[in-house]
Amino acid sequence: MTTPLDHHADNRTGTVRAARLFSNIVSPPVIFAVVGLLLAVNAMPTLPQALFWAALYGFMVSLLPILFVLWLLKTGRVAELHMSNTKERTLPYIVAVLSAAVLYAIVWLIDGPEFMKCLALFNMVTLSILGVINSFWLISFHATAITAAWAIIFLTFGRQASLIVAVLVVLVVIVRLYLKRHTFSQIIAGIALGISSVLLLTEFGCFV
Prior knowledge:
- By secondary structure, this protein is mainly alpha-helical.
- It has one domain (9-202).
- Helices cover 74% and strands 0% of the residues.
- It contains 8 helices and no strands.
- Helix 3 runs antiparallel to helix 4 (90-109).
- The radius of gyration is 17 Å and the shape is globular.
C-alpha cells in the first residue's frame, strides 16, 4: 500500500497540510452530524425539538465513535487518526454500528420521529457493510459519507440544495486521491456504497 502523503508529521505543510485539514473537517462524523441537524430542523415543528434530536444523533453516531478512536490513538492501539491499516478499523466500525443500534432502540422506545429511525438505520446498514468490506479491502469512508449525504439532501431538499454538497463530493475525491489515502477504485466503491445505501432505505420509506 502506498504511504499517504500526510502520514508523517514532517510532510504536513503547505498543500498537504491544507488537504489534511479539509479531510478532518469534512470527515464522516462531521458529515453525519450536519445531515442530522439539517433533517431535524426540516422535520421538527420547533427549534428546541430539532436541536434535541440533532444533538442525540450527533452524540451517538459522531461524538461517541470519535472519542473511542481518540482513546485507541492515545493508548497506542492505532497508529494514526485516519487508520490506513484496515485491521485497525475493525473495532471502531463495531462500536459505531453498536452506537447506531442503541440510538435506534432509544428512538423506538420513546416513539421518536421517523427521520431519526431512518438515520439510525442508515448508519447501521452503511457502517456494517463498510466493516465487512474493511476486513479484506480498504474502501473510502469519506467518499461513502459525503456521497450518501448528497443523496439524502437531494431526496429531502431537492436538486438546488444538493448542488452545494455535490461540490464537496468532488473536493473530497480530489483531496483523498491527492493525499494518496485511497486509490481511484476505493473512491468509486465508496461513492457506489453511499448512493446504494440511501436508495436501499428509500424502499422502506426513508428520505422520501
